[in-house]
TrEMBL record:
<dbReference type="GO" id="GO:0005524">
    <property type="term" value="F:ATP binding"/>
</dbReference>
<keyword id="KW-0813">Transport</keyword>
<dbReference type="InterPro" id="IPR030679">
    <property type="entry name" value="ABC_ATPase_HisP-typ"/>
</dbReference>
<dbReference type="InterPro" id="IPR027417">
    <property type="entry name" value="P-loop_NTPase"/>
</dbReference>
<dbReference type="Pfam" id="PF00005">
    <property type="entry name" value="ABC_tran"/>
</dbReference>
<feature type="domain" description="ABC transporter">
    <location>
        <begin position="25"/>
        <end position="269"/>
    </location>
</feature>
<dbReference type="InterPro" id="IPR003593">
    <property type="entry name" value="AAA+_ATPase"/>
</dbReference>
<keyword id="KW-1003">Cell membrane</keyword>
<keyword id="KW-0547">Nucleotide-binding</keyword>
<keyword id="KW-0472">Membrane</keyword>
<keyword id="KW-0067">ATP-binding</keyword>
<dbReference type="InterPro" id="IPR050086">
    <property type="entry name" value="MetN_ABC_transporter-like"/>
</dbReference>
<keyword id="KW-0029">Amino-acid transport</keyword>
<dbReference type="InterPro" id="IPR017871">
    <property type="entry name" value="ABC_transporter-like_CS"/>
</dbReference>
<comment type="similarity">
    <text>Belongs to the ABC transporter superfamily.</text>
</comment>
<dbReference type="InterPro" id="IPR003439">
    <property type="entry name" value="ABC_transporter-like_ATP-bd"/>
</dbReference>
<feature type="region of interest" description="Disordered">
    <location>
        <begin position="1"/>
        <end position="19"/>
    </location>
</feature>
Amino acid sequence: TELAQGTTASAPGDTELTRPAPAAVEVRDVHKWYGTHRVLNGVDLTVRPGEVTVILGPSGSGKSTLLRVINHLEKPEIGHVSVNGELIGVRRHGDRLKELNERTILAQRSRIGFVFQNFNLFPHLTVLDNVAAAPVATGRLGGEQARELARELLDRVGLADKSGAYPRQLSGGQQQRVAIARALALRPGVILFDEPTSALDPELVGEVLAVIKDLARTGTTLVIVTHEIGFAREIADRVVFIDGGRIVEQGPPSEVLDRPRHERTRDFLAKVL
Ligand code: ADP
Ligand code: MG
């Protein structure tokens, strides 16, 4: 089963004596509903450390909700999620077996980066302080160390010269690169992206995708919701197609994008390509 694969699969070269690292993200039989509206209907997903997973699907299919469940912003009615081997709330058919306290939730959330469609930068803080704020707020770094790290990260996303600017002075593409630097500042085990380029003018999409590609190359674990199919083909280890709150199919891009097995996947790709 999926669960068995998720917990016991060995990479080539593993011996019986070495344990595989825990999955970066493990989603098991997650159901989420609002009143009578069923948004996620039994989702299973395993993301291994260093893997890049691209999630595709029509509007309203549950993609954002899935990311929000992984990041603790929503609780599943049924099922469980673990991130880096730590359980994030467990529910079985309505019976809550374990409830995490708010402190544990905040600690776990601070190990997950989240990059939103609309950047969500702090408008009243400089670019440097936007990136430095979280490590200070979580008590991980002192102010000077955090600013040093922020300068390094801004350099990495090509914005070393913008550290004193305010978000409103930047283009959308630059703001999104700041948001990525801010996510990196917490040294997260995984970064979730929810349509990171869909609010951008077309000519600004490339600079943001280039930064994400650089992260992928350096082994950061990424889960990306996007409609950029060419980008998905280039970057994804695995493509997951979701429709109606269910994973319809998943696999390497060469399968899901080039030889989709399901009618609904083919319909979707025909519309976005
Ligand atoms: P996607 O990101 O794939 O477009 P979403 O996860 O945002 O889809 O939404 C899936 C469905 O859940 C939609 O029908 C949406 O209207 C509904 N939904 C999302 N969040 C809420 C909420 N807080 N309350 C009620 N319905 C919601
Ligand atoms: Mg969405």
